[in-house]
User: Fold this.
Amino acid sequence: MESTNLRHLACIERRLLWLSHWMIHHANHIRPREDAIKIGGHQASSASMVSIMTALYFSALRPQDRVAVKPHAGPVFHAIQYLMGRQTREAMENFRGFGGVQSYPSRTKDTDDVDFSTGSVGLGVAITSFAALTQDYIRAKPWGPVAPAGRMIALAGDAELDEGNVYEALQEGWKNNLRNCWWIIDYNRQSLDGIVHEGLCSRIEKIFDAFGWDVVRLKHGRLQREAFSEPGGDALKDWIDHCPNPLYSALIYMGGAAWRERLLNDLGDQGPVSALLARRSDAALAELMENLGGNCVATMAEAFATAKTERPVCFLAYTIKGWGTPLAGHKDNHGGLMTSAQMADWQIRMGVPAGQEWDRFAGVADKASLEAFLKVVPFFKAGARRLTDDALHVPGISAPQEREISTQAAFGKILDGLARGNSELAARIVTMSPDVTGTTSLGPWVNRRRLFARAARADTFRLENIASTAKWDFSPEGQHIELGIAEMNLFLLLGAAGLAHTLFGKRLIPIGTVYDPFVARGLDAMNYACYQDARFIIAGTPSGVTLAPEGGAHQSIASPLIGMAQDGIAAFEPAFAEELALIMGWAFDYLQRSGEGDPDERNWLRDETGGSVYLRLSTNPVAQPPRRDDAAFRQGVIDGGYWLRKPGPGCEVVIAYQGVIAPEAIAAAGLIAEARRDVGVLAVTSADRLNAGWTAAQRARARGQHNAVSTVEYLLAELPQHCSLVTVIDGHPATLAWLGGVHGHRTIPLGVEHFGQTGTIGDLYRDFGISAACIAQKASSLTAGRPVAAISA
Assistant:
């Protein structure tokens, strides 16, 4: 690399170190405080990444590359944007304040060019491998882009490699012949509570090598390498390479005099070594010993420039946590902050004049030359990198016509119907599943649309004429990605594919399936995908104790509450095929919306903003009701509920149900109809949307919009006050228990609160009190009126 460019990189490195740390200091020590909560900001963790990020952003990246920044290096990322004029001083001054620069890079909350949100450590690392897979998927299609492939890059802290999802992602990447992916490890050997174990580096290298990655170890910076070439340098290198991590960190903190004393004591008077040390002042010796590979911008730039391969590359960059600051090396520096006195002294050392702390070019000797250099940095020349794609037309979605069918089977048939057609929507659907493709009814779709792989691979069983219902053919044209049994990987791939329109300019419709109880197993990754505003459909199926023979380990209880609580996703649990068809047709459009957030005054939901969709389905076939095509039914299914049996004016009991328990609720209504007047049956398709609309309408009324009425308020408005609500779900009863709070009706919530076991559906329904007879018996016993005659469990 030319010396002029290196000079500019060194200048940028210094500016980023200052700006990132000043932003944190300002938030903690200068900005007025409203409470006693520590603001923080991770100065030491930012410092260790400054050289790496300088070399990456200003010498290596291209506009098509995408980066997941280490969460604790967020301040450096924002300093980069500020230096380039892409972040405002106001946002920087409001770091970790309301509406200001976020604590960790956020696609949805920050205003600058964040590619991947980070914060839950390990997830930002892993999603880059799935983004690379998504890029390969798109580029293999005839409608894919012609632009050059980008590198999907993760800047990771070494402690992030403790996260198990990282190794799940490594294995999945190996299976899919991962390429165009870099993971740059900030190997500062310090975490929040201590210093990493000795020898971890070699084990990390072996793991990456085993999964087919190139590993580049960057232990020594240019100053150290030059010193090693001097007489006595071999002995110094050997000492550095064998120095325990805790000792190295302690000596970094203590400084040049401590280094000199320790090296002379350990190496003795060896002539050349002593002379090597004597040629350097204490300050120069400290600079030399701090010059590890990851803290040397020249070394990092050279390493990036020589990594020309498409193969995945792990850069293992040794760094000093707190590098270049008074916090360097101290074992408590993770949450540490420079004091005002330390900052004042450091400001002088950094050459920043008083009053110019926020000046982007404070202390720069040749400002014009640096500005000219910044104008031609390739990564920033293309401008904003948030892409988009046109919305896809959603064809009519027809419900299966079977008289008796499960929602899971209907889901499979709806996708099969799309697979038979040639719509643009069908061409953009990509399905995925963690080794449960066949048992979640994706088989017909896969048989028609095949599995994705960059290289074609035929189904050996078919070649050998062995009968099988599955056609397991892989090809670049395939539209299903088969994953191993790792639900975190499923949601990370859904997240990456669900951002395809903004990352790669090509819209995908990702659909994942998973056994419903194991939604919880991938919940962190699902939350992460939603936080980034990724767009996908997840079908949790089978669900509930209705999956009776499988036992408690496979029977989901809390997932309806997860669906209600999770931001960014609309949760549905239909009972019938016609409902599911309407929901899926709506979902295909909802995934593509990106309008403003003003609520719809019909249901008070922010549907124009769009989002993801969660379908909780079942394998239990149920009899289908007569087909309905009225507008109230169609809209009610989408808004979250409708009257299956409208209550009369003297209604004494309403049975409200959600999901597969519908036949039991309907039968229970028939059992109690002779003893209770005008019994109603409320079909809830989405407790999530009913509840969200209700709370939104209340907020609107509090702001003075007194005519705001939500869907659930409208549905329950005409019930007499003496009417009781009996709610029932094959899931936690709290899902529907809140319905009584809408207009103050007494509510009897029924559902599943404890682990199930094996048995028949009838056994489990009776055990948990959600069979038709149990529902009727509780309605009879707990509401006013004469007993219901001859109820048999």
Notes: The first strand starts at residue 66 and ends at 68.
